[in-house]
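To: structure desk
From: M.T.
Subject: fold request, one chain
Message: Could you run this one when you get a chance? Sequence is below, nothing fancy, just the single chain.
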Amino acid sequence: MAFSKKKWILLPFSVLVFLGLVYWGIGKIQYRQNVMDVEEYEPISTLIVPEHKLTRAKYPFIDVHNHQWIMPIQSLDDLVVEMDSLNMAVMVNLSGFRGKILEWSLENVDQNHPSRFVVFLNIDFEKLDDPGWPEEALVLLEEGVKQGVKGLKVYKGLGLTDKDNAGNRIAVDDPRLDPIWAKCGELGIPVLIHSGEPNSFWNPKDKHNERWLELKQEPGRYKDPKNNPSFEEIMAEQHRVFRKHPNTKFINAHLGWFGNDLERLGKLFDEMPNMYTELGAVLAELGRQPKTARAFMIKYQDRVMFGKDTYQKEEYYTYFRVLETGDEYFDYYRKRHAHWKMYGLELPDSVLRKVYYENALNVIPGIDRSLFSGL
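Reply: Done. Structure tokens follow.
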């Protein structure tokens, strides 16, 4: 049967459409074969700007947030060599634990490098319903200070996962804990307290969540609102403790999880003179807002201390660069914490000294001040 004139006209057009779709499909297949996950994407910037890469701090510093889990048996000589290369004068080990492990840690420090390490102890708050509470915990603090302990470290389990004997969540401001906070004030030792997690961990795990990559790599960090107290609830509990115990110095870990809202953090400083903070694992928050962060660090220069958290020598370099230089658009050391770039704050020397060591000397008792003489 002969084609109509209309069909003859449409045939070439149909062929062109078909070929176009084939071409488009092949292109899509080729793209899909080469597509990469966001975890793999590591573009090299073509930006040419001045660089001042640092491997050593300008001033000796005290790292108030570190964890050395095997301090009772590790070689402190090897660790001190690395500390010297970074210009780290003193490391605070928050993971002193208690009992024999605490004793062995203190012995290792005393016998090898007594001026270079500070040890905090840890209390098991889940014993608050057991016979002997709070007396035994208070004795633990008193005896620990006699042995050389310089502070109490509170882990994030308090307020999130710690439970009493009835199976109920122990709130950060549970009144059964009041004797602990008061005793620390009486003994003159600070409480470095980690409460909650970044606010984004409670948000939906979707394309709008800037911590999506971290939640993908570390799914256990997600805080399902159905099963967890809210971020604001935990923060309110913590702040009520600070207000209730004005004679105790609290070091609010990780910028209090308000590194992304420095105005709010500043208001807390204004309200509570017994609250301090540190930079452990949250440097990326400052590095992405250099103008605001620089102004904040200058205004509250007496309240912020240097902290790193997980020990990894090369990662300190980024801290030095953000705090000391005016460099632009450089990488953070851990992509899941910051897929954005860093900018230097170029802090004045007077502020650097306070952040690096002066504030810690004023908050943590018994640190050897001769390590910083002549600066």
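Reply (cont.): The domain at 61-372 is CATH 3.20.20.140 (TIM Barrel). Let me know if you need anything else for the meeting.
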